[in-house]
Amino acid sequence: MQWQNGEQIRLALETVFNDILETRLRGVPVINPALSVQAVGFDPFNEDWLGVLITPWFMNLLLLSGPDSHWREQPPGSKFEQLFPYGIFEFTLAHEAQLGTYALCSLFSPMFQFDNQSAALGAAQSALQGLLTAPAARVVSRRNLLRGSFGSRE
To answer: What's the CA dihedral at 133, 137, 141, 146 to 10 degrees?
Structure first.
């Protein structure tokens, strides 16, 4: 898939994952009914497009490949490490017919700790912001980064 902009990506992700919610996951008990599918961000990052996908069953960092992605031809299930200003994170490749191959890094699953969409959106925005910011001298754990707790020490 050749992505043109973040809006195209957000629309495609929300369409595909709403379809998954309505078909493959109908009646599955890991769904938080207070949440909906929402794609957040999806701006260029190096050769790729970076954002967060919120669903009622998971929240993942996603990389969608650009034309020069080093991982775009690897098979689903493959793993690679990606360097961000915050540090190195491991991604796993997945595939959906309408999206092609994409890379994911789990932030939360299942999603029952979120009472509403606003709380999930805040966590997604905090995770993206934290990921793209070099850590200060204090130690911030990956867990606290993903929770948006930048002031905690571990």
So the answer is: -20
* Residues, the chain: 154
For residues 106 and 142, give the distance between their C-alpha atoms in angstroms, rounded to a whole number: 12
- Stretch among 16-20, 48-52, 70-74, 116-120 having the lowest mean pLDDT: 70-74
Give the three-state DSSP class for 91. strand
Q: Which domains does the chain have, with CATH numbers?
A: 6-147 (3.30.1460.40)
| Mean pLDDT (the chain, rounded) | 91
3-state SS assignment for residue 47:
coil
Q: If 0-12 CB within 10 Å is exposed, 13-18 middle and 19+ buried, where does residue 51 land?
A: buried
User: How far is 83 from 77, CA to CA, in rounded Å?
Assistant: 19
pLDDT at 152: 41
